[in-house]
Amino acid sequence: MKKSFIILGLIAILFVSACQPPQEDISSEIGSTTEPVIDSYPVAEPTDQKGELQMLNFVKSELARETNPNVDEDLIKTLANNNTAFALAFYDQIRNEEGNIIFSPFSISLALSMTLAGAEGSTEKGMLNALQIDLPETDLHPAFNALLLAIEESQNRSDSEMAGSHFQLNLANSIWGQTDLDLNTAFLDTLAKNYGAGLFAVDFKQNPNMARLAINDWVAEETGYKIEDLIPEGAINAFTRLVLANAIYFKGSWMHPFNENLTIDAPFYTIDGTEIIAKRMKLLGKDLIYKRGENYQAVSLPYLSSDFVMTLLVPDAGAFHEVEDQLDQAMLEAILSSLWTEKVDLEMPKFDFDTNIKANDPLIALGMGDAFNPDVADFSGITDDETLMITDVLHKAKVTVDEEGTEAAAATAVIIGLTSAMPEEPISLIIDRPFMFMIRHQPTNTILFMGRVTQP
């Protein structure tokens, strides 16, 4: 039987709320000077014990997504480098929490970039700084679109037709707006052209819980029902005006599956040296992209679409905190640029966990405090009707790794690297201690998922 090996991250639900009490009058249309295209979307009515479906209006700009953006390759490379800087900066903000971590920096960055389309003044500047973005906003959105298209294209490049194998990548964006909020046409157009996002019209004022359930239902559907109930009860209220959501779902078979018959119970030593027993998988004598550093080892495992890989960074015994402290963009680039094809005997634990992150404090620490401050937040690019602020950024991700595959996307195109002319003894890498991992899209060098395993 094939195992399920998925990693999924839904992230970044951004709550943009009014800084003042809601108005009494409520109309039934989204106000916009753009002639909207309206469709319907079924959701369960929260007060209906029978679970009968209700229909939501789906409003989108007349403009279609630009599927062939004229974007210079240097802009895409700059954005990918900026996203890597953000991934490491955000990890640095949350790594003092105990235990395993999984998050999607790409998903958080994507949702916040959508929000940036409506930010102005110091709010915009602070968000750009927090996201480590060097591009002007006019270049950011087309560059993100080009980057998304490059990643989406890679899922069609499967290098094997192994029976029972699987590869799927789903990226989805959506906006949920108060039904009578007059949204600026330029904001809707930017999101439609560059992110393919339309707007679901919901009534936060009169029925915030129904809106919450509708968003959770969308998230669950887009992630194959692996992430459910993302938004807890009470997180959305009558002051909420807009929710921007991004979901990522990744499911992929390894190019080199582990032999399930070789999986054993074996010791794993946690950060404090405690011995626990974990399921240890074995992959013997395979040509893998590998590096031995001063106090760590690194190895990349390709998926069937070899544009995606999982890169493992394994500190030596007792050196986890030292390597974690040292890890920055320069170190990561040095590691990735010096990986080389070696014959490796790899042993690593299976793992399965999820992480819930309220990202407000990390993002404020990175410089976007104005966006959360009701006195100074400026999202006038979204609407002129009300003064808005971000109240919450919620992130949830889940990862499962087993013999057949793993969770997120990391990219390596050099699986066929040079091999030695004479047979050599395989390098042994036994991962029986905490390690970090990244799932990357190698053609663009984009980190889709990042995390650590301290207790499988």
How does the overall form come out from the CA principal axes? Answer: globular
Number of helical regions: 9
**CATH fold topology of the largest domain:** Antithrombin, Chain I, domain 2
Strand content: 25-35%
Within CATH, the superfamily of the largest domain carries the name Antithrombin, subunit I, domain 2
Mean pLDDT, nearest integer? 81
Q: How far is the N terminus from the C terminus?
A: 23 Å
Radius of gyration: 23 Å
- In the CATH hierarchy, what is the class of the largest domain? Alpha Beta
| Architecture (CATH level 2) name of the largest domain | 2-Layer Sandwich
pLDDT < 50 stretches:
1-12, 20-53, 159-164, 406-423
Total domains:
2
Residues in helix, %: 10-25%
DSSP strand count: 18
Largest sheet: 9 strands, mixed
Structural class: alpha+beta
Q: What's the helix-strand series?
A: EEEHEHHHEHEHEEEEEHHEEHEEEEE
Domain Serpin: 88-456
GO molecular function: serine-type endopeptidase inhibitor activity
Keywords: Signal
Pfam family, one: Serpin
Can you describe what's shown?
Keywords: Signal. The protein is an alpha+beta fold. The protein folds into two domains: 6-252 and 353-399, Antithrombin, subunit I, domain 2 (Antithrombin, Chain I, domain 2, 2-Layer Sandwich); 256-350 and 408-453, Alpha-1-antitrypsin, domain 1 (Roll), CATH 2.30.39. It has helices spanning 73-94, 105-116, 121-130, 137-154, 185-195, 208-222, 320-326, 329-337, 360-368; strands at residues 6-18, 37-44, 53-60, 101-103, 167-178, 199-202, 240-253, 264-269, 275-292, 296-302, 308-315, 340-349, 351-358, 388-401, 405-406, 427-430, 435-441, 446-453. Helix 1 (73-94) packs across helix 9 (360-368), helix 2 packs antiparallel against helix 4 and helix 3 (121-130) crosses helix 9 (360-368). Mean pLDDT is 81; it is low at 1-12, 20-53, 159-164 and 406-423.
